[in-house]
Amino acid sequence: MNIDWGAFASVVGVSLVATVGLVGLFTFGIVGLSKQQESARAGAYTAFAACAAAVAYGIYLIAG
Amino acid sequence: MEHLTLLIGVVIITALVFDFTNGFHDTANAMATTISTGALAPKAAVAMAAVLNLVGAFLSVQVAKTISGGIIDEKAGVKPEVIFAALIGAIVWNLVTWLAGLPSSSSHALFGGLIGATLVAVGSHGIHGNAIVMKILIPAVVSPLVAGVAAMLATRVTYRIGRDADPEATSKGYRAGQIASAALVSLAHGTSDAQKTMGVITLALVTGGMIAPHSDPPLWVILAAATAMGLGTYLGGWRIIRTMGKKLTDIRPPQGFAAQTAAATTILASSHLGFALSTTHVVSGAVTGTGFGRKGAVVRWGVVQRMALSWLITLPAAGLVAGGATLVALQGSWGVVLIGLLGLAVCAGAWLLSMRKPVDHTNVNDVEDIAGAAPEARPADAESFDAFTPDPAFTATIPAPQPQAPRKEAAL
Q1: Are B63 and B275 a contacting pair, CB within 8 Å?
Q2: How many domains does chain A have?
Q3: ipTM of the predicted structure?
Q4: Which domain holds residue B341?
């Protein structure tokens, strides 16, 4: 029996990093929007754009 | 030839029935947290899931080409009767677990059915043991754990980053995040699960000699499978939504967002790297994990244990029913008719039993407070018939229509 542990390890790594990264980024965006400063809002929109790009990549993966 | 065509017609209809049960069984995967936190109204949530499942089904036919992911040897003499019996096994198990409100894996039910039916029909050489370990057993253990840990960490991160923010101001953002992440899970589900039905129908058409081996599914097969799954999803498996959204742990919007994002990334990462894993396992793991991520949240271990037990027995139970059904179906036309009638009887029985204590969009969120603050707050009629409130009538009524699978009830 040939078990591809490397592939499992990459699933584990990618899932953990991508989840924590995306949730962190999105929360950063939400918090930024709740503030009044111009710079915080700009940072928030950048964070949302990055999340949107990740979602687009996800849809690309689903279709691929 | 006429007989063959009729039989294949029956297999196709049975496959679509399975697809339909797959749809309502798995609505919870995408929408349970969205519904329980109130991010979307129940009806709106299932409608969105249905549309995205429908769209997802058209995105790819990659999985459908290798039906069952190489778990059974399709050249070992798998006949339409065997596929039919496999589907009956999967449908019966999906209905039993739905009635019990258990989020078990529809994919495991289908795999179990195919494995059981193939074992009985052609013996162990029809099964690829290596593929079972690699594609079913290891992912079944690893994926809920990975999604659970990811959800737990993400929950901590989101609460930490947002600790000074005004909850009023962030609630809109969390709501949007929940809807977006749930949408991604729905889309991925439609793509992966509808393809399994397409693959089964295509296999039936190939065994009947109606299309060439290794063909892509014909367009009408894609349309039919997508529609059956979409309709099933819209029906909403409210019992399972209640278990996942309310009973495992008490979910707040940031947790729902973290759990669905963990589920979406785990599903996409693994399917991109070639593992077909169960959406149900991943989402249940993520929901449980998020319960550990928030301070003060309670995870109900009893519910987690029953759920895990149902995961363990799903594959053998569906296999057992399918194996028994194969024995009868291979006796000839009367056997197929008998199994078909018994399958219908189980469907009708499950529906009648569910009507005794219906769970629908109006009462899906009505469960007692998880912290036990208001133990008597639940209205009497909202207490659902499920695995967590044992009902003697359940075990007494189900065995009757399935005489060829006595051990299934014992396992329950």
Answers
A1: no
A2: 1
A3: 0.92
A4: 2-142+182-244+313-411
